[in-house]
């Protein structure tokens, strides 16, 4: 898809959500959903970039989100670092972890990378709850309960001021979405796709798999960590339960709805899945059953998601690339 088409879809999607507070700004339940849509849109987009464009089957995106949230919370609580500084520091921390995870994955491919990155996800919960995590300030089983909200020029952003906080979230989410968009359409994105389609041939032409795979690990981990840190300061509490398979599955469904490797379809997928998931909360366990059924249906009927359908209906073949 051309850059102008990506920009137009992002503009329409974020423009539509930007005017929502004018109609529902006094309804906290809906405003919370809108904030969550913007946060998870970035997390899902990062996962889409590393899996759909770089072809790396990483299953550690939710772990990086939680790492960023805990890192920023610990910096703010234990070291009294202002959230405005703690959030980017948490992003840098998760980028470093992303590189460390990416290094052993350079010698692996396909399902083996998935196993390594999912192993990171599985190892994070006992680490957070265990003695090492407690020593680092994670709060163990209790979690972090007193994370300070973001405060800029004396104005506090948090769940108590939802409309201003929504627009701050919108700005951050849109900035991350644009970074992802321009990365995909730059020479970096071209290198990611080349390595995905034919790594041996690409390397014979001088494309460094080592360099570009580490870049995609670092960039996606950084942006995911930033959103995790922001999430922590928005809600003020964190728990190891964020690593549940429910959230992992919902992220996967977001990509399937939007279309794997069909950015910015994943943003639309995130808006739809987060909203549907929150509205179906009263259904309890049936919500997960419905989400699982939706994933199966999408794989069978729309393998490229709603964005693939959009391309087929509205874009000429020469404009879809």
Note the main attributes of this structure.
globular; 321 residues; mainly alpha; two-stranded antiparallel ribbon; ABC transporter involved in vitamin B12 uptake, BtuC
Reading off the top of the CATH hierarchy, the class is best stated as Mainly Alpha
The rough form would be described as globular
CATH topology category name: ABC transporter involved in vitamin B12 uptake, BtuC
Helix content bin = over 70%
Quaternary status: single chain
Order of helices and strands: HHHHHHHEEHHHHHHHH
Largest sheet: 2 strands, antiparallel
What is the strand tally? 2
Low-confidence stretches: none
Distance between the termini: 4 Å
Mean pLDDT equals 90
Count of individual domains: 1
Radius of gyration: 19 Å
Q: Mind telling me which CATH architecture this is?
A: Orthogonal Bundle
Structural class of the secondary structure composition?
Answer: mainly alpha
- Name the beta content range: under 5%
The number of helices is: 15
Strand arrangement, largest sheet?
1-2
